[in-house]
Design a protein that fits this description.
Residues 247-301 form the Gfo/Idh/MocA-like oxidoreductase bacterial type C-terminal domain. The chain is α/β, with parallel strands linked by helices and 502 residues long. The protein has helices at 4-10, 46-56, 83-92, 109-124, 137-143, 159-168, 183-196, 212-219, 257-261, 287-304, 428-437, 451-466; strands at 37-42, 61-67, 132-134, 149-152, 172-175, 200-202, 226-232, 311-316, 320-323, 326-329, 340-346, 355-361, 382-387, 391-394, 402-404, 470-473, 478-479. It folds into two domains: 4-207 and 425-446, Rossmann fold, CATH 3.40.50; 212-417 and 453-501, Dihydrodipicolinate Reductase, domain 2. β14 and β15 form a beta hairpin.
Length: 502
């Protein structure tokens, strides 16, 4: 007898199999329940809730469980007081949804469960009560054995262990960036994806721009030999702390602090570690490059065949203080700097010569005197390709590339090259992931293709944390010149949290 999971895994065996829109299947306007890919949504903070409707809009997918250490909407931060609440109300077409909670940023598993059940009850009719809620992802995996896939929207330090535990149980995985916030843990995630063969979708793929036009100019000789890539962002847009929290703060009601810490060392609870601000801590986040570099650089890594860097050199801001009238520099190996510039050196590969990749954050930007000729300023975010004969300037995610100065653009090299085009209601990466879940090939957004970019963003953090230039051997995954850097390539797992034992 064929159950629903067996159907999903074998459906692609039919040569005529195709994924059909809602209105075609069953004549009822929806995909039959037996055809749905059931998903557990792990992580229901503000970003998790904001992304949730995009997944629920996919006809072939249904969320059946949510999971988060936080039960209630307490202590969440956002870009506006009621912005997210109003977004979710618009999705539901229910202006009175969660009436009385105005002024409180939504978040937590109770809000997520309510949203999921309200959405599906409206869509499918009746009092839909098909969404379970859990604090601990391990309990979810033990009890929801028939779930096909998970979507992971937790803080960075939980990505690796949760994805590994899920893949080892045969669950397909969708995950926000980064793969993990430790280099060797990220490798373990990718190795596990390869060994288990599950379908994985790394979400930054959907926001990557096209390198087609830039590569046409580079390959056509418009800027000579490529020498440098510069990429800069206005991040961070959250606090970067200059001291470790010391105030004694009660753990909020319904918040499982131990579960939120997960694999990281025990410490007293502080709201300055958690919602939104976790990205600024080396233990819990990945900094600005992990936040935005995946979006801007993954396509660049693929197009230029960037593998492992041979060196990583940081330049970063520091904090000073006074003690008894004597100035000192804060020894900060716990949080990312306010601003930094990090230079990666990549060896030659094939026809491509050796190239430097330079990342900037905190308002740092490269000089571009050529822009004066075009009466332009260096944008707050952007990307620049520097060659032996010229430069290409593009938006942060490769939007609207042009040669600098624009008058230098040869007419025979201005042929527009078609990129990915506009994304539809169901992004192409998600569509390819669905096909992979049902037995098709892995999609371009698979974890298997994210090794080099994951390595770079984790080495960025290690270089900043040590404050030293690192010489790196990609084959052994070791820093060869700074002994203390090695401990930052992995983490010491608390008892019960080693991903190899989950």
């Amino acid at each position: 007898m064929m159950n629903r999971r067996t159907f999903l895994e074998t459906a692609s065996a039919s040569a005529c199999f195709t994924i059909l829109p809602r209105h075609v299947l069953a004549g009822s306007g929806v995909v039959p329940p037996s055809d749905k890919i059931t998903v557990a949504h792990i992580g229901t903070g503000t970003e998790g809730l904001r992304e949730m409707p995009r997944l629920m809009a996919v006809p072939e997918v249904q969320i059946v469980a949510v999971c988060d250490p936080s039960k209630h909407a307490i202590g969440y931060r956002d870009w506006g007081t009621d912005d997210l609440l109003n977004e979710l109300r618009t999705v539901l077409d229910k202006p009175e949804w969660m009436a009385g909670t105005e002024g409180t940023v939504p978040g937590g598993r109770d809000v997520a469960k309510n949203f999921v059940e309200t959405y599906y009850a409206t869509e499918q009719g009746g009092a839909f009560k098909g969404c379970s809620a859990y604090a601990d992802f391990r309990e979810l995996l033990d009890k929801e054995k028939d779930v096909d896939a998970v979507k992971i929207m937790t803080p960075d330090h939980l990505h690796g262990i949760i994805s590994i535990a899920c893949m080892k149980r045969g669950k397909h995985v969708i995950m926000h960036k980064p793969i993990a916030n430790r280099l060797r843990e990220a490798k373990l995630v990718i190795d596990t994806a390869r060994e288990t063969g599950v379908a994985t979708h790394f979400m930054p793929w959907e926001a990557n721009g096209s390198m087609d036009q830039v590569m046409a100019w580079i390959n056509g000789g418009a800027i000579g030999d490529l020498r440098e890539i510069h990429n800069w962002t206005n991040r961070p847009v959250w606090p970067q702390y200059t001291s470790v929290p010391t105030a004694s703060t009660p753990v909020p009601e319904g918040f499982e602090w131990d579960l939120w810490l997960g694999p990281e060392a025990e410490r007293p609870y502080s709201p300055d570690y958690t919602h939104m601000v976790f990205r600024g801590w080396y233990d819990f986040g990945g900094g600005s490059m992990a936040d935005m570099g995946h979006y801007s650089l993954w396509t660049v890594f693929n197009a230029l065949e960037l593998g492992s860097p041979i060196s990583v050199e940081p330049m970063l801001t520091h904090t000073c203080g006074l003690k008894n009238g004597i100035a000192y520099t804060v020894n900060n190996d716990f949080s990312f700097p306010t601003a930094s510039t990090v230079r990666f050196k990549y060896p030659a590969s094939g026809k491509r010569p050796a190239v430097d990749l330079v990342w900037y954050d905190g308002g740092m930007r490269p000089p571009a005197p050529e822009l004066e000729m075009d009466k332009e300023e260096v944008p707050i975010e952007g990307m620049m390709f520097v060659g032996s004969k010229g430069k290409i300037l593009a938006g942060f995610q490769l939007e609207d590339p042009h040669l600098m100065p624009q008058g230098s653009m040869p007419k025979d090299l201005v042929t527009p090259v078609r990129g990915r085009g506009q994304r539809g209601a169901v992004p192409s990466g998600m569509r390819q992931w669905i096909e992979a879940v049902r037995g098709g090939p892995q999609s371009p957004s698979s974890f298997l293709n994210a090794g080099p970019i994951s390595e770079a963003v984790n080495l960025y953090a290690v270089a900043l944390r040590t404050g030293k230039k690192l010489l790196y051997d990609g084959q052994s995954q070791k820093v060869t010149n700074v002994a203390e850097a090695d401990k930052y390539l992995s983490r010491e797992y608390r008892k019960g949290w080693d991903p190899r034992a989950l």
